[in-house]
Amino acid sequence: MHHFLIALATTPSPTPTPSLRPGLSEDQVTPGTWGFVLTAFIVVLTTFLIVDMVRRIRRVRYRAQVEEALVGETDGAETDEIVSGKPGAEDSDGDAGSGAR
After folding, report:
1. What distance in Å separates the CA atoms of residue 85 and residue 71, rounded to the nearest whole number?
2. Residue 100: CB partners within 8 Å, gap ≥ 6?
3. 25 is a domain residue
4. Is residue 22 part of a domain?
5. In the chain, how many domains are there?
6. Is 77 part of a structural domain of the chain?
């Protein structure tokens, strides 16, 4: 009980209204209008950058899916050629596998 009374006696009493130290004005301790404007600008800019990044990532992912589908179709056509023994589409010269152009 004795320690409690000492702790209570040494605790500073709260001030009824918050006040600034002498020599400080409210403009020196608050961000003010310019601080708000710059913070809002950074938030809007960050939001646009995140939206743009999500669009680009989604676009890359879709392109990869389309490429995988095309490779899968090509692999399927080559597998059908091997199984059936029929050559694939011929070049414009009529040579199926010459590769000379």
Report:
1. 21
2. 93
3. no
4. no
5. 1
6. yes
